């Protein structure tokens, strides 16, 4: 539907900061038909297919499998944990021998099957439905491991060095998996970064399905040991094994006291929906390098202790992040980082986070639609070094700094590997609709833009008695901007004067 003239209400001005060494004449201001900026709201994927019944249907055959134990050094999927960095010593110290792992092969298996075959040294049912794993568990490519509703808790022993590696198919339904400290008979609550805690990892080519379950006290600061992870093999192993990207669903579940509540690397079509993430150490949800077509929806992420609630980083593309609530996280509520592009961020709420509500760093061509950023410790919405970002109908209320902040910045030398993470110090935005109310630093601050296109932005309740001025590089265009947006009720386009720059060049 076209934009109505009544939407073009501007009750305070925007703040535009100067481009170093540039004059106001380097920019031009022109009007535009506001309907040119209009786009329909992106269609969001339905969550209806992602149910417990659909997960159970994926299990398929329950033909009994085989259980054995083997030395970890003889198991290819365990290479990451027995390499030359001394990690083998972690398991040797706990097992007091050349470390072994439980190996599941050729069919369907449960914790009760492991306990029956290998006994308490490997798996013990210490009370009805309570299983304690005392060795690492490997789900081989031809196996399905199911932690089902007959298991009240699968406890991975921190003391004995247990963890779970999926190289086949893993299902956790109506159950719980907990990092367990046998010495105190309590969950393995976080103590320090390098302090070993059990973890779950699914490798390349795997399927992982979780529904109606709880995960607690998993993960620490070592590679692929972050808590709950779905990851392609390391580059060297991926060339050897040649397996496709992993996938899975994590739905209707709870995660507490995790190093990372969720992590993925080169994963495709993963669904993370309707979960609760509380008190994660570093991140609540962290999809990473070259993951594609993810659905991150209707999650509640709160209390992350060191960094962000939700972050996607390094070419996480073509994904949907919608209807999430992030609150009381140490830094930003949600971050798009390092060339994560062609994503839709819609209808989320970012409330009372320590830094921004939503942060975009070096991530072009994203759509930000209908989100609310309320009472965050920095900006409501921040965009850095990202071109082609579109903000539609977003609301920013009572944030400590600006409602919307956009800027270009040359990053400090050594702050990143430019071959791995290249970027351009430039940005551009389209801002249509929305309300910016009572933000401490003003409604909008813009620094060094290639272009800004605006229409119908409602800006209310400035905190300063003098209101806000159109300042810096665009100060000379104050009357032009207000003429376009207030008198003409049109969209305003503010862009570099490329004709002049070509002549001067």
Overview of this structure, please?
- The protein is mainly β.
- Helices cover 10% and strands 36% of the residues.
- The chain has seven helices and 45 strands.
- The chain has a 15-stranded mixed beta sheet with strand order 2-45-43-40-37-34-31-28-25-22-19-16-12-9-5.
- A hairpin with a 2-residue loop joins strand 6 and strand 7.
- The protein is elongated, with a radius of gyration of 26 Å.
- The chain starts with 14 loop residues before the first strand and ends with a helix.
- The N terminus and C terminus are likely disordered.
Descriptive key words:
505 residues; mainly beta; 15-stranded mixed sheet; elongated; disordered N terminus; disordered C terminus
Helix content: 10-25%
**Which strand order do you get reading across the main beta sheet?**
2-45-43-40-37-34-31-28-25-22-19-16-12-9-5
Overall pLDDT = 90
- Gyration radius from CA atoms, angstroms: 26 Å
Main β-sheet description: 15 strands, mixed
